[in-house]
Design a protein that fits this description.
Elements: H1 2-15, E1 17-20, E2 23-26, H2 28-54, H3 59-89, H4 99-109, H5 114-124, H6 136-147, E3 153-154, H7 156-163, H8 167-175, E4 182-184, E5 187-191, H9 192-201
Antiparallel strand pairs: 1-2, 3-5, 4-5
Length: about 210
C-alpha cells in the first residue's frame, strides 16, 4: 500500500496535476500532497535500513523493530492520505494545517479566480448614461432602479438624494418633527420606510 501511494505521490510531484473522475487540480498544493504521500514509504525504508544496521546480530530484536515500524507505517499512511486529501481537494471545513503545509493551504484559499473576478466586475458594472433625452417612462424605470440601491437606513445626504431635496430641507424636517430620525455620531439615521411614506403621501413641507 505504501509503495502504491509512493508511486502516486511521485507522479503528482512530477506533473503537478491530479485527476480522479470529475475532479481535477493542479499547482503547488498538488505537489505538496504528492510529497506527503511519498513520506511514509520513504521514512519506512530509512527506518528499516537503520534497524538493519542496529540489530544486525540479533534477529529477534530486528523482527520486533520491523513489526513496530510496520505499525507506525500503517498510521503514517492514514495521516498522509488525510493530509494529502486536504491539500489537494480543499474540502469545506478542513482544519488549518501546521507549518509549510498551512502556508500552501492558505495560498490556495486566497488564489484569485479570473472567471470569478470577471463575473463580479460585470455584476458591479454601471450602465453609461445616454446622451439623448430619455423617455418619461424610461426615466421612471431608471429612478426606480436608483431607489433600490439605497439601504433600509439612510443618512441625511442619502435621504436628500432619495427625496430629491436639498440636505438643509431634510434637516429642517427632522427638527420640525416631520421626519423621525436618530442621532448617530455627527449625522442622522433615517428609516427609508418613513421617507417612502412621506413621499407617497406627498407630505413634504419645506416651510417658508
Amino acid at each position: 500500500m505504501s509503495l502504491i501511494l509512493f508511486v502516486i505521490g511521485a507522479i503528482m510531484v512530477y506533473s503537478g496535476r491530479f485527476a480522479f473522475g470529475g475532479f481535477r487540480a493542479e499547482g503547488r498544493h498538488v505537489r505538496a500532497g504528492g510529497l506527503v504521500l511519498m513520506a511514509p514509504a520513504a521514512l519506512t525504508f530509512v527506518a528499516a535500513l537503520i534497524g538493519g544496521m542496529m540489530f544486525a546480530g540479533n534477529l529477534q530484536a530486528l523482527q520486533g523493530f520491523l513489526s513496530l515500524i510496520g505499525v507506525l507505517e500503517f498510521f503514517g499512511l492514514m495521516v498522509a492520505t488525510w493530509l494529502a486529501y486536504i491539500l489537494v481537494a480543499d474540502p469545506a471545513g478542513a482544519p488549518r494545517l501546521p507549518g509549510v503545509l498551512g502556508e500552501i493551504q492558505a495560498e490556495r484559499e486566497h488564489k484569485v479566480n479570473p472567471l470569478e473576478e470577471v463575473r463580479k466586475a460585470r455584476a458591479q458594472q454601471v450602465p453609461a448614461p445616454e446622451n439623448h433625452a430619455a423617455h418619461p417612462l424610461n426615466r421612471q424605470v431608471q429612478m426606480s432602479t436608483r431607489v433600490e440601491t439605497f439601504g433600509k437606513i439612510l443618512n441625511v445626504k442619502q435621504a436628500a438624494s432619495f427625496m430629491n431635496l436639498p440636505e438643509p430641507a431634510i434637516v429642517g424636517m427632522i427638527h420640525e418633527g416631520q421626519l423621525p430620525a436618530v442621532r448617530s455620531g455627527g449625522d442622522y439615521a433615517i428609516a427609508r420606510s418613513r421617507l417612502e411614506e412621506i413621499k407617497s403621501n406627498g407630505r413634504v413641507d419645506l416651510g417658508d
